[in-house]
Amino acid sequence: MTKISVLVVEDSFYSADLNIRELKKSGYTVHSQLVSSEQSMKKALKESKWDLILSDNSMPNFSALKALEVRNYTDRNIPFIIVSEDISQHDIDKAFEEGCAAYLAKEDLTELREVVTDVLKMK
C-alpha cells in the first residue's frame, strides 16, 4: 500500500471523510488533516509535509482559489485538486492557470482514485 499525506481543505467533516474513504478504497494508506481557513491551512503547511491537497470551493470566508494562493506561496510542488460542486468555469480556468492539477465535481467522487493516481504519477 502506498502511504500519502493529504491536506483536506473543507468545511464539512462528512465531505472530507468521503474524500479520504475514496482514497483508501484505491489502496492508499492515508494520513490526513482537515483545515477550513487560511490560517489553519498556513499552519498545517508549515508544520507538516504533504503529498497532496484536496480543496472544496464553497467555504465561509475561504475558497479553492484562496487555498491555491496559500499553496503557491508556501510550496507550488504540492499537487492541488479541487473537489467541489459549486465553482464557476471561470474560477476553474483561473485555478488551472495558477497551477491546479485537477478538478473533480463532488458528484463524480468515485473518479477521485483515478485522478489522484494520475496526478501523483506526474509529481
Features:
about 120 residues, alpha/beta, about 45% helix, Rossmann fold
General description of the model:
- Helix content is about 45%, strand content about 20%.
- The chain is α/β, with parallel strands linked by helices.
- It has a single domain (about 1-120), classed as 3-Layer(aba) Sandwich (Rossmann fold), CATH 3.40.50.2300.
- A five-stranded parallel sheet has the order 2-1-3-4-5, with helices on both faces.
- β3 (about 50-55), α3 and β4 (about 80-85) form a beta-alpha-beta unit.
- α2 (about 40-45) packs parallel to α3 (about 65-75).
- The protein starts with a strand and ends with a helix.
- The model has no long low-confidence stretch (mean pLDDT about 95).
The low-confidence parts are none
Radius of gyration: 13 Å
Structural domains: how many: 1
The CATH topology is given as Rossmann fold
